[in-house]
Amino acid sequence: MSSVAQKKGFGSWLWDWLTTVDHKKIGILYLLGGGFFFVLGGIEAMIIRIQLAVPNSDLISAGLFNQIITMHGTTMIFLAAMPILFGFMNAIMPLQIGARDVAFPFLNSLGLWMFIFGGLFLNISWFMGQAPDAGWTSYASLAITSEGHGVDFYAIGLQIAGGGSLIAGINFLVTIINMRAPGMTYMRMPLFTWTTFIASAMILFAFPPLTIGLFFLTFDRMFGANFFDHAMGGNTIIWEHIFWIFGHPEVYILILPAFGIFSEIFSIFSRKRLFGYTSMVFATVLIGFLGFMVWAHHMFTVGLGPTANAIFAVATMAIAVPTGVKIFNWLLTMWGGSIKVTTPMLYAIGFIPSFVMGGVTGVMQGAAPLDYQLHDTYFIVAHFHYVIVGGTVLGILAATHLYWPKMFGTMLNETLGKVTFWFFFIGFHMTFLIQHWLGFWGMPRRVFTYMDGQGWNSANLISSVGAVFMAIGVIVLLYNIIMTSVKNVPVANDPWGDGRTLEWAIQSPPLYYNFTQTPLVRGLDSVWIEKQEGNESGITPAVPVQDIHMPHGSIIPIFMTLGMFIAGFGAMFREETSWGLPLLVFGLAWTFVCMAIRSLKDDLGYYVPKEEILEDMKRERGRK
Amino acid sequence: MMKGLKKWRLFSLLAALTVFLSGCGQEELSTLLPAGQVAKDQFNLLLLSSGIMLFVILVVVIIYVVALVRFRRSKLGEDHIPEQVEGSSTLELVWTVIPILLVLLLAVPTVYYTYKLGDVTAMGAVDDEGNAENLVVDVTAHLYWWEFEYPELGIVTSQELVVPMDEKVYFNLIASDVKHSFWVPAVGGKLDNNVENVNKFYLVFEEDSSKLKEGVYFGKCAELCGPSHALMDFKVKTMPRAEFDEWVVAMQSTKKDKDDAGDTAAASEGEQLFADSCISCHAVTADVKSPYPNLTTFGDRNRVAGFMDHTEEALKEWMKNPQKQKPGNEMPAFDHLSEAELDAIAGYLMGLTVEK
Amino acid sequence: MDLNKKFTPETWPDNPETATFEAKNKFVGFWLFLGGETILFATLFATYLALKNKGPANLEFSTQELYELPLVFVMTMLLLTSSLTSVYAMYHLRNYNFKKMQLWLGITAFLGLGFLILEVYEFYHYVQLGFVYSNSAFSSAFYTLVGTHGFHVAIGLVWITLLIFRNAKRGLNLYNATKYYTFSLYWHFIDVVWVFIFTVVYLMGKVG
Amino acid sequence: MAEIEIYKKSPAEFDLGQRRARRSMRSQVIMFSLMIFLTLTSFMIVTASNAEVIGFSKYYVIPVIMLFAAVQVGLQLYYFMHMQEKGHGIAAMFMFTGALLAFLIVLTFVTIVWWN
Ligand code: HEA
Ligand code: HEA
Ligand code: CUA
Ligand SMILES: [Cu+2]
């Protein structure tokens, strides 16, 4: 392996990225993959909005439309938002806790490739005749009757990608539990680390039900099981429960890391300690916990009976309280601070009113009898885009600007950043605000067209125009990224000037082993504390310079995932082709052999010698 | 930046204004113009919750704007180091307790209405003579069309629900193929038609639909059920009880009429053609329940197939190629029939009426 | 870490399974994984309970008629005993007694294999009766729940066999001690799941 | 990082360790007997119930066997999986959260899936 890596040039560069187990590079790969799928999902969104811009539109057919909304929802949630967040968690969280790497570098890479291959698997459906078309929720009665292989792609693709998420979750959890630098107690962890922790714990408990649900779906469709076939005693409501037992926690998995990012931003750009740190942590934990108790609010109209509806309604509303605590803590962090409106801060400022509007509509939906009216209308579409786009996506865009210099060593253009913000922000409100009323006026969601004369025309048109604004914003961002990368002006450790946590005390981008010496943490916002006390480096080392243990790269994760990918196709074409079954067996065997190789080989990693580290430190001092 | 922010405010104000100018939507399908007790209860809940939410938004926005205006670095100077406040238990208590109170304020009516609207105990009630006290309608959702059966009255109809006003009408909901959801926005919230169990609820219709623009309320399928989910509309006619009773009698007598017609005059050409091609699926008497839409009242309808104009042209388009109109539906195409034959059938169907 | 460093019972750490940094990670990570598995099985159990005895109108199988307690009892005893034997193995792991540890693990695997064979026999028997996977919602739920457990047993067997053979020549060190230890955690977890299976599926199925 | 310090125990320490290990092994065996006993009892009362022995109604049998199962699980976790030893705080926390959610899931499935 190493002999290949010695070769210079494109081949070795590629090999390096394919085999990397460095959390920073994996973070970048997550961003790349997630960014690609975000644009893909965004293009799908544009098609939806173009189709709905005018009544009786027959631009795309009814069947195709259903495929597009299904893929839009699935892509955005599983392949764009989550992976991008994983990207930032990977790139930043270990730095925040003063760690050299994550707990399981090999598994980290495996999780990444499972996401990528799962995403590819799902999207290959476009070229295989049919994409999934039963909605991102794939409700069972429709999903098991849906013809073609569309829903099979959904079930298997998500199974692979979901496995990757589970691995990533466990990896982050163990990293945070075991690898905090000396002095970094739980109650000194930066909020982004905390939210990563809670979101990962939620992944740990939310994804197994999805695994089982997808398994049921796969077996019902392909292997003759009867979980959801009511003629055979099955029950489709089981799918709905399982999906939402996963699905509701999933939306908090999406929002909590964004909360973490905004917590960092408010504190950095208000130059002030996060207000009410303890209650912030407590609120995060509480949201995570309550997040598992409310899933049936997606099922108020299923007919669970008034008692179940009442219980879940009240539980749902309870989440408003810890979320409110967070909102007010952010406001009070700004209050009395010294607010500098940089691009990341601009996103944070835009986030507050947007998310609150989305959150309060959520509470309205939580009122079960009112939800009988709102459910499955555009009001719901408005609600969840307000929280997802106004929360998660703004968080992602903010983090992109905030952490770009840390990850790539160069700063995104601030003016272009602000241009992106305004286009995106205005477009966002324009698209989704009006949809609340569409819901009130009786427009169901997931309709491929609507008749003229129902009073929905102009609202839909406004909504579609807004989407164009968002697209312009995203295009400006892409332009910004390209221009910035071409110019590649290097930046210092703390380009924002007010960094408070460990990641801002090391180089941008960090050395591959992160910290030359493991830092000693003496309080919350440790870099800020050190700097206030006159320690310009921002770090007090906890140990002398010594050899550093690092893991080897490995190509096995890609190969292992490839096996699953192949097995997926085998399973799907098992019945109509003769090669299906052999392919399934081959794929599984392949994966298993990769696992066995990995487990039978002793891989103990290697040491970065002390001399090299001293050398790096000298160079660093010279640069200053 | 402030200018940008102000611009946004102005913009959202304008947006809000347009929304209010265009009013509350259309009477026949807006939840904001409730036409019955259930929808009114839900509308009240909407008003209450919107009030609370607007209050919350207002509070947040006020603190937010003041903070943004007062604490800018441009005002305070580049090297101003603010005091590093840890928190404040009083404040934190305040913004824990007040939201709890607000949530309780909403939770109490929520629970109350959940039980009130979910109460179907009176559904099976019978009077001294064993007759049902309340009207019950069995709604079966099929791939892209609705069937309404009045079991006590022995009537089956499709696509258009006819109900009396000012009394609780109870519904049994089920789906015959995949899940659908039964929704009449102006009259009350939706309930799902599941495949494996019967869902029960009630609605109250308090306005006469004849004064509406098209004389009907709009009903929708609210659960993704396949390609033509968007086209799975139905219509609701509400009328005073007396009128409804007349309608029932007229419906019940369609069977007798048929027999008479068969005995006396020779059937019209359209009727003959219909009997040849269509009767295997479509019944034209209100007592027959089959897995296909019952067309007894076709002439009284407001739409063809739930969403197309109620004209002979549209009907012919439908017969010629139902798949084009409603992808995935289960009616075969009759493009082999001549134009004249289609005309005849269309004419016959348009004449099927109990109301005129 | 030098794998070839030989320990003696005196220098062998008290908790070899968590003696190194990597080992600690693996240890915590594996426990978390088991936490996730709990939910995975909970979903299967919940589904089984919801679909128990449910099938098409002419379903001729019910839990009461189908299950045979004596067989289940024997399976239970095998698996429970294998849990104890793996505890013995861990006892020797901590005592740095490699030979005995391997021996007890071998016995564990042997008992596990016995369990698996009986389970396969049980399934075969049911299939002979006509209770096949696609017979009803009940049959799907039954085979999926019990089968997933059986699959876990099979994975465990492959895992421990690989470990036993792979380390036969190398002996015990701090690198593979964790592997043995996590295996034993896994094996006990399987036992925990089985306790619920025999209680919820078989015993409660018999009671009705 | 991977380097660990080798510590050689004194003979006294070593003896103590050995004795402690043996003692804990003995308690494991006792717990095992208890588990076997519980299992036997469970099977027996179910058999009794099937044979319609008076007093063994299902409303008595089911709670009892569920209780026994819970006890067995506790024994497995705390004795066989060493959760009583220190350093298992995180493990316990996640297992308990898992168990709680598991309970909730099963509860809803046996109740509200079939309500109505
Ligand atoms: C990031 C994702 C995200 C987030 C954070 C949320 C947050 C919330 N959601 Fe949302 N939701 C979705 C994503 C999200 N949701 C998605 C994707 C769907 C649709 C899925 C589908 O069907 O396809 C959905 C659907 C959905 C439904 C089902 C609607 C239906 O289909 O009928 C409900 C019902 O209760 C709901 C409620 C809530 C609530 C109460 C919150 C709360 O967490 C919000 C809490 C926040 C606040 C309340 C604001 C701040 C608080 C204060 C300022 C304090 C004071 C406030 C009060 C006193 C009210 N959501
Ligand atoms: C993370 C989640 C996420 C995100 C970010 C978005 C983003 C957007 N969504 Fe989506 N949406 C969902 C999750 C999300 N959505 C889900 C779960 C559903 C439900 C699906 C279902 O019913 O099953 C849904 C459904 C949904 C609907 C309802 C469909 C229906 O019910 O019929 C609509 C309609 O307006 C919509 C619109 C949009 C728009 C306009 C955006 C915009 O914000 C998108 C903005 C991004 C872009 C516009 C990028 C474009 C970039 C370019 C164009 C670059 C050009 C290319 C190059 C230069 C190479 N979404
Ligand atoms: Cu029927 Cu949608
Ligand atoms: Cu939810």
CATH topology descriptor of chain A:
Cytochrome C Oxidase, Chain A
Secondary-structure element pattern of chain A, one letter each = HHHHHHHHHHHHHHHHHEHEEHHEH
In the CATH hierarchy, what is the superfamily of one domain in chain B? Cupredoxins -  blue copper proteins
Strands of the widest sheet of chain A, in order across it, are: 1-2
Write down the CATH class of chain A. Mainly Alpha
Ions, cofactors and other ligands present here are: heme-A, dinuclear copper ion, copper (II) ion
Distinct helical segment count of chain A: 21
Name the quaternary structure. Answer: heterotetramer
Number of strands of chain A: 4
Distance between the termini of chain B: 67 Å
Distance between the termini of chain A: 37 Å
- Please, what is the average pLDDT of chain B? 86
Proportion in helices of chain A: 55-70%
Structural class of chain B: alpha+beta
Q: Name the CATH homologous superfamily of chain A.
A: Cytochrome c oxidase-like, subunit I domain
Low-confidence stretches of chain B: 259-265
Which percent band covers the strand fraction of chain B?
Answer: 15-25%
| Overall residue-averaged pLDDT value of chain A | 92
Explain how this protein is built:
The complex is a heterotetramer of chains A (624), B (356), C (208) and D (116). Chain A is an all-alpha fold and 624 residues long. In chain A, 67% of the residues lie in helices and 2% in strands. With 356 residues, chain B is of the alpha+beta class. Chain B has a domain at 250-350: Cupredoxins -  blue copper proteins (Immunoglobulin-like, Sandwich), CATH 2.60.40. Helix content of chain B is 40%, strand content 18%. A five-stranded mixed β-sheet of chain B has the order 3-2-1-5-8. Chain B starts with a helix and ends in a 6-residue tail after the last helix. By secondary structure, chain C is mainly alpha-helical. Chain C has one domain (16-52, 80-207): Cytochrome c oxidase, subunit III, four-helix bundle (Four Helix Bundle (Hemerythrin (Met), subunit A), Up-down Bundle). Chain C is built from six helices and no strands. Chain C has helices spanning 21-51, 63-66, 69-94, 98-129, 137-167, 174-207. In chain C, α5 packs antiparallel against α6. The longest helix of chain C has 34 residues, at 174-207. The termini of chain C are far apart. Chain D has two domains: 18-85; 86-116. In chain D, 74% of the residues lie in helices and 0% in strands. Chain D has helices at residues 11-50, 58-80, 89-111. The longest helix of chain D has 40 residues, at 11-50. Bound molecules: heme-A (HEA) (2 copies), dinuclear copper ion (CUA) and copper (II) ion. Copper (II) ion binds next to α9 of chain A.
